Amino acid sequence: MPKRTLLAGAAVVTALALAACGTTEAPAESESAAPSSEGVTVTDARGQEVELPGGIEDVVALEWVAVEHLQTVGIEPVGVADVAGYEDWAGTGAPLQGEPTDVGTRTEPSIDAIAGLAPDLIVAVAGRDDAAWADLEAIAPVVVLQAADAADPIGTMEDDLRLVGEATGRLDAAETAIADFQAHLEEVAGTVEEAGLTGTPLAHMDGYENGGQVEIRPYAEGALLPAVFEEIGFENAWPGEGDPQYGLGITDVEGLTELPDDAHIVYMTVGERDVFTEELTTNAIWTGLPTVEAGNVHRLPDGIWLFGGVDSMSAYADALVAALSPTP
């Protein structure tokens, strides 16, 4: 029997995060004050001070979480990296607003396409080489978000939203959205308790086929998803470690034998390909897992971005409750 692998590597999992990967009740929307017209200086995830004018309207977003944060504070981005991908992976939890121009991929945005939009601001995320910012900064001010930090995943997400709000003169809208999000999680936690699900161990994971082998990407402690489902009363069943930014690990199918017998596996994918119901159906290790034998494997609805903002995470919490609640 091959040796189990419970692996984590920052470079690998960050690359996977960039390449990847319905609600029962939407969080309440609140009115907020008009955006400030005064300029501001913010400090972004690079530790760099960025001077910004007031009245920012035209913004390009180079990561999907940046798109969501902008929409949350009331800005429809004029440019978005990989529009089609956003609509597939994030369009249910945080539907794309407006008709933004596609500015290339998230890993290789088109400088020409961005320059053609003459934006007031470009919002990106940490992880690019320092030299990559120069071409963007020649077009417009660039604010870099942290995007993820396994030391404080929910706090990092909320702080990034605040940074977007501050940079665009819409900090009040960001604070209102954060308060609504926190209130929504409290409400969902009550639903989880009423359903008798509090303390249920969950393991969220992605599955990929790579060269004929199935690779599993589990969300360890420090990932945003476990942080959210722990807030509403579930427990993270995955025992392995993740990388320091996204909290993601890598394992093989045999590594899943480390899961407790009463764990529930939850996952999400886009489109027809589903390794959990295709490649793994003939894998004896997978089919022999107690959680699989008990029917405790749940595919969540497509289109909720797993590295998103308050709307995506609210939709994720709702989807979990819907998937795990006992049927009448």
SSE order and pairing:
Blueprint: E1 6-7, H1 10-19, E2 40-43, E3 49-52, E4 59-61, H2 64-72, E5 79-80, H3 83-89, E6 101-102, H4 111-117, E7 121-125, H5 133-137, E8 142-145, H6 153-167, H7 171-194, E9 201-210, E10 213-218, H8 224-231, E11 235-236, E12 250-251, E13 264-267, H9 284-287, H10 290-293, E14 297-299, H11 310-324
Parallel strand pairs: 4-5, 4-7, 5-6, 7-8, 9-11, 9-13, 13-14
Antiparallel strand pairs: 1-12, 2-3, 9-10
Helix pairs in contact: 2-6, 6-7, 7-11
Report the top-level CATH class of the largest domain.
Alpha Beta
What count of helical segments does DSSP give?
11
Distance between the termini: 42 Å
What is the third-level CATH name, the topology of the largest domain? Answer: Rossmann fold
Low-confidence stretches: 1-32
* Structural class estimated from helices and strands: alpha/beta
Reported CATH architecture of the largest domain: 3-Layer(aba) Sandwich
Describe this structure in words.
The structure is a single chain. This protein is of the alpha/beta class and 328 residues long. It has two domains: 6-20 and 185-324, 3-Layer(aba) Sandwich (Rossmann fold); 49-183, Rossmann fold, CATH 3.40.50. It has eleven helices and 14 strands. It has helices at residues 10-19, 64-72, 83-89, 111-117, 133-137, 153-167, 171-194, 224-231, 284-287, 290-293, 310-324; strands at residues 6-7, 40-43, 49-52, 59-61, 79-80, 101-102, 121-125, 142-145, 201-210, 213-218, 235-236, 250-251, 264-267, 297-299. The strands form four sheets. A five-stranded parallel sheet has the order 6-5-4-7-8, sandwiched between helices. Strands 9, 10, 11, 13 and 14 form a five-stranded mixed sheet that branches. Helix 5 (133-137) links the parallel strand 7 and strand 8 (142-145). It is globular. The relative contact order is 0.18. Residues 1-32 have low confidence and may be disordered.
